[in-house]
UniProtKB/TrEMBL annotation:
Protein name from the UniProt record: RIIa domain-containing protein 1
Entry-linked CDD domains: DD_RIIAD1 (cd22971)
Region (Disordered): 1-25
Length: 112
């Protein structure tokens, strides 16, 4: 039987192989290392994308806020209505402006 990988997965990610009694032994050490590098690279790319596109954060935060406030019975219909609302672009624009304003305020406060 192949050597069972002993590894530390990237921060915040679960290991594929558990390196214990329940270890599947499905990946070689090299495969596990490549998988961990791929996970880390993907996570960094995702974080970079989200930093470059703050509108994604505003969309998700707005949607979750509305879901928790309204607690709809049919989440699929609610999501469809939310994301096809003709006022959404204007709402998103004002949220982005408010976000930018808060960032500027925080920078000023940090300098004090």
């Amino acid at each position: 039987m192949a050597d069972k990988p002993q590894h530390r997965p990237p921060h915040g990610m679960e290991p594929y192989d558990l390196s214990g009694q329940d270890d599947l032994g499905a990946l070689s050490q090299e495969q596990q290392e490549r998988l961990n590098k791929f996970k880390t690279k993907t996570r960094l790319e995702n974080e970079r994308y989200l930093r470059d596109h703050p509108e994604v954060e505003c969309l998700i935060a707005g949607f979750l806020s509305d879901v928790l406030r309204n607690r709809p019975e049919n989440i699929k219909d609610f999501a469809a209505d939310f994301f096809t609302d003709e006022k959404l672009p204007d709402t998103l624009e004002s949220q982005l402006e408010e976000r930018q304003h808060k960032f500027k305020q925080n920078r000023v406060l940090q300098k004090l």
